[in-house]
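Researcher: We're teaching a course module on how sequence relates to structure. For the next exercise, students receive a sequence and then see the predicted structure as tokens, so they can try to spot secondary structure elements on their own. Here is the exercise chain.
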Amino acid sequence: MRILVGMLAHQLHSEVVRRVHSQQWGGHDGYDVLTMWGGDIRPDEDRFQAVTRKYQDLQRMFLAGHWDALLTVEQDMLIPPDALVRLAQLVEDGADIAYALYVWRYDAQHWWSAHPHIEADADGKPWFSSLCHFPDQARAHWGQPVIVDGLGFGCTLITRQVLTRLPFRQSHGDHCHDTALALDAKAEGFIQICDTGAVCGHMLDATRVIWPDPTSVSICVCRLSEVVRVAPGAKVPVASVDPRNPNR
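Model: And here is the predicted structure for the students to work with:
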């Protein structure tokens, strides 16, 4: 499998770069890394539109090349050393989009990035249900691949088949291209899986990182650490979480 790692950045921490360039990848084709620099926002854009435009540029570059899948890595993400191997294995096993796991870093919202259910309302505004909203299931499935509806491009492997059929686009005004892709992929019947054993840190600043924590009373509360390595969990069979039946 030929992989392009795509990063959009206006600044990069050395540990982010080290982790991207030292993946445990045994593919004979290796993998390529493309960093698209710049934090520019045009006068007629908001930040969501600017980010979407840059990902559209990345998508065009990918489709013009010879790669089989695109791994997106955000500039504030500390990915595990086997992230690429784990996500590529999910694709080999049938996933069209494979996600690693991290937490949002909003002040009052540290949801897990794995979302078993995403839906758009009548006005097109998406609503979300994170795996961490179902603590018993989240703990039971910790370290496992879980079927999801998306979400997030922090560390995500997307196949050429998806990128050929689904252009990156902005969804509702206050949501970015990752939400739109998740909804579009769901509508098209693409298989989306999150490996909750591919655990990533989300950097708050140059020294502080937040992580998913299944051991806390409220697992939507993250764990804080310094910039350190984390050992990912073991792979076990894929599980499915039904947000309408959290006790299943």
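Model: If you want an answer key for the exercise: Residues 47-63 form the longest helix (17 residues). The domain at 3-240 is CATH 3.90.550.40 (Spore Coat Polysaccharide Biosynthesis Protein SpsA; Chain A).
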